[in-house]
Amino acid sequence: MLPWNYGFHWNIATIVFMGAFYAVLAIVGATVITAVLRSRGLLRAKKAENMRWHSDFKHLRAAERECRHNLAGEMPGRLCSHAFDCRECKTHAKFIAKHPPVRPQEAEEEIFGMTFPLDRLYHRGHAWMRREADGVVTVGLDDLGQRLLGEPDSVSLPEPGQRVVANGTAWRARKRNAEVRVLSPVDGEVLETGGPSRGWYLKVKPDNRNTTHLLRPHEVRPWLMREMERLQLALAGEGAAPTLADGGTPVADIAASYPEADWDAVCGEMFLHP
Amino acid sequence: MDRHFITRGVKRCSTGRFLLWLAPWVAMLLFGLYCAGLCLVKGLNQTNMDNRFAFGLWIFLDLTVIALGAGAFFTGFLVYILKIDALKSVINSAVVIGLVCYSGAVCILAVDVGQPLRAWFTFWYPNVHSMLTEVTFCISCYLMVLFIEYLPIALKNRKLRDVPSLLVFEHEMHKVMYVLAGVGTFLSFFHQGSLGGLYGVLRGRPFAFREGLGIWPTTFFLFILSAAAVGPSFILLTTWMVQKITKKRLVRPGTLQLLGRISGLMLAVYVLLKTVDTIVWINRTSPGSGFPAEQFYAWKPFGVWILFAEIGLFGIVPAIVLLAPKLRARTGWLVSAAAMASIGVALNRFVQTVQTLSVPTLSFDKFMTYSPSWQETGTFLAVVAYGVLVYSLSFRYFRVFPEERELAIEAAQPDDEPALVGRY
Asked: A261: nearest CA in chain B?
């Protein structure tokens, strides 16, 4: 095996055999070491949340990865290839340049019996963000998200000073058997958190003002239409769909209406956790 | 109890029921470990092997599981190198099967060779002219590669993903998987071939001896081809079995048909070359060694039927079924053909191992039969139990079939989909 071993002879067979064997070991070793080093670098750069989202996004079903322009009927059949980060999407930029968004006045606040105020932008994972006068951003859970969680059994908010990244975990909540990560709509530093009395929220000092990736009020209706269909489908998976009345309004605590359903699966579907 | 370790959105039985399923396999594993312990402590006198019959049930099992586990390397090659994305839904399962097969084979080899504390000798003082050395090195390396390939599957576990370092490492490992798939293909190519070559170079055993290209006898290439042919079939078969046992749809029917088609294509090439090889052996190699080929089939129970069964019934027939689109589209035909192909490769390895050693080659030799002792059988069963346990645990806690959740949602969707979608 090695030149200093008893009986070792240099010949073609030895060189070929040892060469192939050590080459394989070197390639495998180098591959694993590369992965370890790159992982270390990414951890230091605090990219874990970002990577988690990209990894999760790959595992979302096609119906969950629909492009916002597909939801609005502007680009039928198009799936998102940028993990819902339209800031990186050239197609979105071109489309917006050609077709500027309609004014918020044309949108509505009450959709399917739920309230979606016009003063904020919405994330596909049922969080919203509102820019305050002082430049700070408030992050909260939209009406459908609140109805899905009802009164959570427990909530784990980040500490002030902690960082959140867009599509990363903003805070965690537990409802029955469901462990939910509410996805953050913005990048920034948490300044303040709010408890149940004022609805769960975060005050975040944003890193930048780019909110291209968030849904505008006029986009909420088509998105919510698809969300209600997805909810119905998720409940159908739990054998509960027939009890959801056509066109009805979701109750304040949907989970309470389906005590037998695997709420972890339903929330996973709706909060984009594959 | 273990709900939060199970992939979100997939249904698994209760913990109690799962433990009940595991119990008999654990019992079988413990019994097998006792048998293996006896062989290791007391020696190979616990087996029915001897100096003449040095290869028995264990080597037959090794050769068979390594051929069946070839689905891991071949599917990896198809997915990561040839970029056949349709097979992504079975690649994890292929890796688990490959890991089970190869680690099981190495464990049983450790019992067979004995003296595990001296196992490192084979790496330190290798005989570079021996096919077995190549097999040892390639299998060890490939097992290491399989463990590394299995890591990202395990790290995808829901709870482990909450650990940022593991999450990032899993993601990075996934990026370099094509390198490991390439290395795995290289290693598998050579060790499958060397396992075949091992028999082909036995000049003293004219039943197995074959001529070939350069230093490689034809069995070198036939083993590679047969393993590549039957690997996808075995993945098809196991996927279908898991679907039946769990009563779930895990992959789309098209994926199973694609596996069948690939397997059929490879099997057809293999059967063609095996037929040519057999004809050459009957007419040239065997008579050249001083033995008319029919003489080898004069010893019962290894009559000519075994040759026809291997090439015809378990070779040509499944190849035709798997290549015929209409037959392949029917699950019954597809699965039966995959099972027949798997049996065919097992029969081939049995013939190479047991029949080769059974037939006499010297004038004073007698036809010998061999049946394994209960200790050998127990050790064999331990590997089976180990395989079922690893696969069961992987299936329960890891995302072995990535499309499972999507298929479950599709299945829950009523047939009158338009009535459901669009109510709002």
From this structure: B9
Residue whose structure tokens are 């997805």 = A230
Report which residue type is found at A236: A
Q: In angstroms, rounded to a whole number, what is the distance separating the alpha carbons of residues B206 and B361?
A: 7
First vs last C-alpha separation in chain B? 38
DSSP character for B415?
A: S
Helix (H, G, I), strand (E, B) or coil at B2: coil
Q: How far is CA B201 from CA A217, B224, B256, B358, B410, in A?
A: 76, 16, 37, 17, 54
Beta-strand pair A163-164/A127-131 = unpaired
> Which pTM does this prediction carry?
0.89
**Structure tokens, A48:** 């874990």
**Res. B323 pLDDT band, cuts 50 70 90:** very high
Chain B residues with beta carbon closer than 8 angstroms to that of A239: 412
Give the separation between CA B67 and CA B222, rounded to whole angstroms.
Answer: 11
DSSP helix, strand, coil percent of chain B (3-state; round to 5): 75, 0, 25
* Contact flag B123-A1 (C-beta cutoff 8 Å): yes
Q: Give the model confidence (pLDDT) of B56-83 as tens digits.
A: 899 999 999 999 998 888 999 999 999 9
What ipTM score was computed for the predicted complex, to two decimals?
0.84
Which of A22, A25, A27, A32 is best to mutate for the B interface (most B CBs within 10 A)? Answer: A32
A228 contact residues in B (CB cutoff 8 A): 423-424
Give pLDDT tens digits for A171-230: 999 988 888 999 999 999 999 988 777 778 899 999 888 888 999 888 888 898 888 888
B123 burial type by CB count under 10 A (0-12 exposed, 13-18 middle, 19+ buried): middle
**Separation between Cα atoms, residue B364 and residue A56, nearest integer Å:** 69
The answer to whether B9 contacts A265, with C-beta atoms less than 8 Å apart, is yes
Q: Do A17 and B128 touch (CB under 8 A)?
A: yes
Residues 304-333 of B with CB under 8 A from A: none
Which of B123, B124, B148 comes nearest A32 by C-beta?
B148
Burial of B400 (0-12, 13-18, 19+ CB in 10 A): buried
For residue A81, the tally of other CB atoms under 10 A from its CB is 11
Partner-chain contact A35 B187, CB within 8 Å: no
pLDDT tens track for B353-383 = 888 888 888 878 888 888 899 999 999 999 9
Mutation choice for B interface testing from A24, A144, A180 by most B CBs within 10 A: A24
